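Consider today's protein:

***
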Amino acid sequence: MKHIIILGDGMSDHPVERLGGKTLLEYARPEYMNRLAKMGRTGRLQTIPSGFAPGSEVANTSILGYDLNKVYEGRGPLEAASIGYELHPDDLALRCNIISLADGNIITHNGGNLETADADVLIQELNKYLGDDRVRFITGIQYRHLLVIRGGSKHVVCAPPHDHPNEPWEKLLVKAEDNAPVEPGRMTAEETAELINRLIIESQQILSAHPFNRNRAAKGERQANSIWPWGGGYRPSMQPLTQLYPQVKSGTVISAVDLIRGIGHYAGLEIVNVEGATGLANTNYEGKAQAAIEALQHDDFVFVHVEATDEAGHDGDLELKLRAIDYLDKRLIKPVYEAVCQMNEPVCIAILPDHPTPVEMRIHVDEPVPFLIWHPGIEADAVEHYDEVSCVSGSYGMLKLNEFMNQLMKI
């Protein structure tokens, strides 16, 4: 039995009054997700371990069966792996958003939907004025980049910008952890926090003066006018999935997001690049579907990640998130399901989000997510729809953390 996980990042949501008190999945009634739920079995999954924030790096690593207490090092090192930047043992790697500020507040975590080519120009400008033997900025994708500090301490408290829309940025500056340990050969946590905050403040002067942002300001558009580092850590140590689960002989990860590609790298999965995959609602769903179908021809495990639903949730855009759910259903899940039905070897399909990103909150929340599992010959449960309410009655009940992957690998 081969396995494919299709993950709609942040797809789960809360009941919305504008939708008659239904969640977005209830309201959207996605045809193929509902079909697979009716033919398969469902349940709910707690993806966030106790003591961890509900970030995508935590949830996706947990879904793949890893113990976060043993492997977690933050988003930065994972994204470094995806970018292809080899961390030195004494490097601190932080995810570095380029964000939009206005009137002293964080307006959006994504720099006004920044394009990668434009972002690269800004990253090079930051390296010109702020980079040195200790500090280096690395271009990633769109607004998601990397800050590497040689000898930095990971024991600092950083606020993820997507969790603080419309809040004053100065109140969210980096702080040292309480009772942070002193690590030989590294800066103290206080020194690291002071350096990062200086980079944030100086980046605002540099980016605001750049012609790219001056042109945006003249057009009344959001400016990409500050960096915001967070999610820092050192180089992680993760066993490949082939060692954790003997059922996985080879695998592939398909995602436009550096974070997910980095997890895949350390999990020993092949990273597949899909032209036109953007991480937004305009991503190439058909291309991802085709890449997944092709991967199933030679691999026995495929992980397909779609970021669009999460981005719409962070933007608080109800209509866009509904549209992204529909696109995921019709343009990715449908062709994968139809192709799987024609394959000689049976394939198990699992569908789930990593965490909810409610459109009326615009942040990640630590709540169970609905999941479905279908394969040829599975004994269906009584659930007929895939949504947060229906899956409460699913025959898998409530699973926690690596119980999902353990259950999947039994099939």
